[in-house]
Amino acid sequence: MIIDNFDPFVGQHCETTATGSLLKNLGIGLSEPMLFGIGEGLGFIFWNMKIMNFPFIGGRIKPDVLTQNITRNLNLQLEEEETSSVKKAWQNVVSNIDKEIPVGLKLDCYHLEYFANRTHFAGHYVAMYGYDNQYAYLIDTQQQGGKVKTSLKSLELARNEKGPMSSKNRSYTIQRTKKDYELMNAIRTAVENNANDYLNPPIRNIGYKGILETSVKIKKWFEDSRDVTRDFKTTAMLMEKAGTGGALFRNLYRDFLKESADLLESDQIREAFLEFSKIAGLWTEVASLLDKAGGSSKVGYINQASDILVDLSVKEKRAMELLGNL
Length: 326
Prior knowledge:
about 325 residues; about 15% strand
């Protein structure tokens, strides 16, 4: 069963691409920056666990929450399913596709056969719009090919994988409700919520406090690293190219603010947009310095990146304070 004339969303970030595809099927066509912004997506985390090969620098809110925020702010109905049963997990998907309802999936992209660079990441999202006896037909990001397919067995392994960020065969669908959304109200709500959450991090490795913390921790990380090249070149790649839209999601949020300022004719949002234009450039510079550190093993690049992170902590706090009370 393959949904006829399914029109995929073309995006750079996996969760907005998957959820955008489901929304497009409902006749809702918003830009990727708008989806990211309405999803209250901007964040920061420096995450280090013993089971991880090296620390993770993230620039968005937790997986799943982005889609939950998008659907709430657009007055849509989100149905989420998780199960430890592979059989039940498959049934959750095909029961919807057989009714021509596309399904969002969270999985580990390591097992997907169309991925050129196979690495474990269990926080990846795709939209599924069909299946046959051999393959599942998926929508992935533009850089992964857009409309793609993978074997049913590989999909099963990807969905059932364990590890950081993994879920139990998570799937979700989105439906309209009787209450339509008002885009400008959704923008105001999302901007204020995102700003206030960002400015009040529960722990010090999150938000602007986390950026400041990272400015210190990357120095120790560099000193203690068993593989400087792997750690810092991979981190730089993840920040710029692994579905973030560049600049650790700051390009997406910058573009959301520009679109929102034009729609709402808001000088306050426009000022924040100008701030994030500078912020995005600095994050790209940080990624470049980490890449150079990984390629040369020279601590000077780490020290430069650390200094910029201190500045970024101040700049992001100030920009989000502009948005906290529209």
